[in-house]
């Protein structure tokens, strides 16, 4: 599991500290910069899931200028403005950069957290993804974004050891913890769409790279962290066919 990494452009120390405290309590990894030059340097060196931009930096609308540059450079990261600027002219200019939203200071904490969650969902939501609001997860080719309390957790798909059906939910057993999402095993398999996962039982989907041992006669798989998963006759032959190394 990885916390969502957030880039914060905010030049005022007191406001930055309060914002960082709120975000870190809600499972964000925050990197703060005080000017656009530093922001661009961080963006060159690190991957970010989302950006919060103040508009007025040292008396100039650096936040908007930065957003325009990111747009021209096709740096495709969801962002929102968090500012005290109530000017309609400033708002109209900011709107041209296609932010997710434009929030005014002093901000409502829940409104900000929800805006961040929706921005992540909207950015990653495609025809083959799942809504956070309805299913508590968004699935992308490399990550799952899972709603947990008031935060969104980022889970690397490669870290999933296996998936198990739990009534109306699926339990994701990962290297760093377990998660429940309201989704069928078949749907998860379709959305992940990876050859690295194999169904070994009507209730189990296994990350092939996490297999340590297979006992075909006992219909048993031993996975990393000593997890044991059933192997049914129904799926055994297909598994062997798709994974000739286990023949």
Automatic annotation (TrEMBL):
Tell me the keywords, alphabetical order: Phosphoprotein
Task: Name all HTH LytTR-type domain ranges.
Answer: 144-232
Q: State if Transferase is listed as a keyword.
A: no
Query: What GO terms are given for molecular function?
Result: DNA binding; phosphorelay response regulator activity
Which residues get modified to 4-aspartylphosphate? Answer: 54
Reading the lineage from the top rank, the first entry is Bacteria
**InterPro entries xrefs:** CheY-like_superfamily, LytR-like, LytTR_DNA-bd_dom, Sig_transdc_resp-reg_receiver
Looking at the record, the residues that make up the Response regulatory domain are 5-120
| The protein's name in its UniProt record | Uncharacterized protein
Organism per entry: Tenacibaculum holothuriorum
């Amino acid at each position: 599991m990885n916390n969502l990494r957030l880039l914060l452009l905010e030049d005022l120390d007191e406001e930055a500290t309060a914002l960082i405290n709120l975000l870190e309590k809600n499972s964000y990894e925050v990197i703060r910069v005080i000017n656009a030059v530093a922001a661009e340097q961080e963006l060159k060196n690190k991957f970010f899931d989302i950006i919060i931009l103040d508009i007025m930096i040292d008396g100039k609308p650096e936040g908007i200028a930065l957003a325009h540059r990111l747009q021209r450079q096709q740096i495709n990261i969801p962002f929102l403005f968090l500012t005290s600027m109530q000017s309609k002219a400033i708002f109209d200019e900011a709107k041209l950069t296609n932010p997710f939203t434009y929030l005014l200071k002093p901000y409502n904490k829940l409104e900000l957290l929800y805006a961040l969650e929706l921005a992540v969902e909207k950015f990653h939501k495609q025809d083959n993804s799942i809504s956070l609001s309805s299913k508590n997860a968004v699935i992308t080719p490399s990550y799952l974004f899972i709603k947990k309390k008031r935060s969104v957790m980022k889970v690397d798909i490669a870290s999933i050891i296996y998936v198990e059906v739990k009534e109306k939910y699926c339990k994701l057993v990962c290297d760093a913890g377990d998660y429940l999402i309201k989704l069928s095993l078949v749907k998860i398999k379709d959305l992940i769409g990876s050859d690295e996962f194999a169904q070994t039982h009507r209730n189990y989907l296994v990350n092939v790279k996490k297999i340590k041992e297979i006992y075909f006669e006992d219909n048993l798989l031993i996975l990393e962290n000593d997890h044991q998963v059933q192997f049914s006759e129904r799926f055994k032959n297909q598994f062997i066919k798709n994974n000739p190394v286990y023949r």
